[in-house]
Specification:
Layout (H helix, E strand, L loop, with lengths): L3 E7 L3 H13 L7 E7 L6 H5 L4 E5 L5 H11 L4 E5 L3 E3 L3 H6 L7 E9 L5 H19 L10 E5 H6 L13 H11 L3 E12 L5 H21 L12 H21 L5 H15 L1 H10 L7 H34 L21 H9 L13
Helix pairs in contact: 5-11, 8-12, 9-10, 9-12
């Protein structure tokens, strides 16, 4: 029988972690063949106190972000399958069974579940509509190449062989997408199980939502630099999203040209906005079926999202350009600059692959405050 390890990274999650652990308890976690590890990643609230329940192993992280916290939990885990769950989720009945079911298929090394939300905020409802559009796309995909870590499962041996999450990605960025693309590129097979559901708390304020989208756009640039073929499409992201980002950017340029009274700029702007509006029709139809009052706001929300993503991408490209200039300058220096006078190697630059791999090899400083009932 397969043994499992459920790993919950948590930083200042005292307000939500209790409900997550309650949901896991109804799933029999922790249990005879299901251990539960909570990684308290440098919290300054009562996360550690909330996590200290009978049978729960509480590890202390160094506040280096969810990638490092999950990797530390994986290193300490003993299960055949690693299940990652965010601290702001609550598993639905049957979640554990459904997360494990696809591993019965030959060659499956990772499984993705799905989010549900009962929030009433218009922004949270819009976010849920986005997820459902993407879930429909995953359900139709012939080959799934996307697993994010809000509710995800990996075969432990495959996860560790791949090196786990890249800890160079900071909090809530793209470390899960990068791992998924890394595994998929090597030929790993994934599965999406829409019956493996968790309740999730989406952003409820517009600014919070847009900042998150900008951050994702920024770090996706780094992911696509490593896996450029994925910039053309994956099994999760709707193709219309890239078009919307481009149209939003064009509309900004055309609006400026219109203010400068450039010939035909006004007509071009009107046409661009009309095309943008048409591109939002799938989400509008979905909103009309589920949240009718939200439907009129869909074009404006998608437009704001496209601008946030576009700005994030622009910032990411700018950062990469500056890094390339710095790298070119460093490459042109004499090779002996990396050596000390005694012939030993000097420290590698902090952001270099050598330094990143060195940090990965550091021991995960953790304190097992297990309160297991023995």
């Amino acid at each position: 029988m397969t043994s499992v390890s459920v790993i919950v990274p948590a930083r200042n999650a005292g307000a939500t972690l209790g409900a997550c652990l309650d949901g896991l308890a109804t799933e029999g976690v922790p249990g005879p063949r299901a251990e539960l590890l909570v990684v308290d990643d440098g919290s300054t609230d009562d996360t550690g106190v909330v996590a200290a329940r009978p049978g729960v192993r509480v590890l202390t992280g160094l506040g280096r972000g969810p990638a490092a916290a999950r990797n530390g939990g994986a290193q300490a885990a003993t299960g055949d399958v690693l299940l990652f769950l965010d601290a702001d989720t609550v598993p639905q009945p049957g979640w554990l069974r459904e997360m494990l079911a696809p591993f019965g298929q030959p060659g499956v090394v990772a499984v993705k579940g799905r989010y549900y939300s009962c929030q009433e905020s218009p922004i949270a409802r819009f976010a849920q509509l986005e997820f459902e559009e993407k879930y429909d796309r995953l359900a139709r995909a012939r080959d799934v190449d996307f697993v994010d870590s809000g509710t995800a499962a990996y075969r432990r041996d495959a996860f560790l062989a791949a090196g786990g999450f890249d800890e160079a990605f900071p909090a809530q960025s793209a470390e899960d997408v990068e791992l998924a693309f890394r595994l998929a590129t090597s030929g790993a097979r994934f599965a999406f199980n829409p019956r493996a559901g968790v309740w999730h708390r989406h952003a409820e304020r517009l600014l919070e939502y847009l900042v998150k989208k900008a951050r994702y756009g920024y770090f996706r640039v780094r992911v696509y630099r490593r896996y450029p073929q994925k910039a053309l499409g994956d099994s999760y992201t709707p193709p219309s999203m890239g078009l919307q980002i481009a149209l939003a950017g064009c509309s900004g340029v055309l609006a400026l040209m219109t203010l400068l009274r450039a010939p035909l700029a006004g007509r071009a702007l009107a046409g661009t906005l009309a095309l943008f509006g048409c591109s939002t029709s799938p989400l509008i139809r979905r909103a009309l079926r589920q949240h009718t009052a939200l439907a009129p706001a869909i074009p404006a929300l998608v437009y704001a999202r496209a601008w946030a993503q576009g700005l994030g991408i622009l910032m990411g490209l700018t950062t990469l350009g500056l890094e390339r200039l710095q790298w070119t300058g460093a490459r042109d220096r004499p090779a002996r600059a990396l050596h000390r006078g005694d012939g030993s190697l000097a420290s590698a630059p902090a952001g270099s692959p050598v330094a990143v791999n060195s940090r990965r090899r550091e021991a995960f400083a953790s304190e097992d405050r297990s309160s297991a009932a023995r």
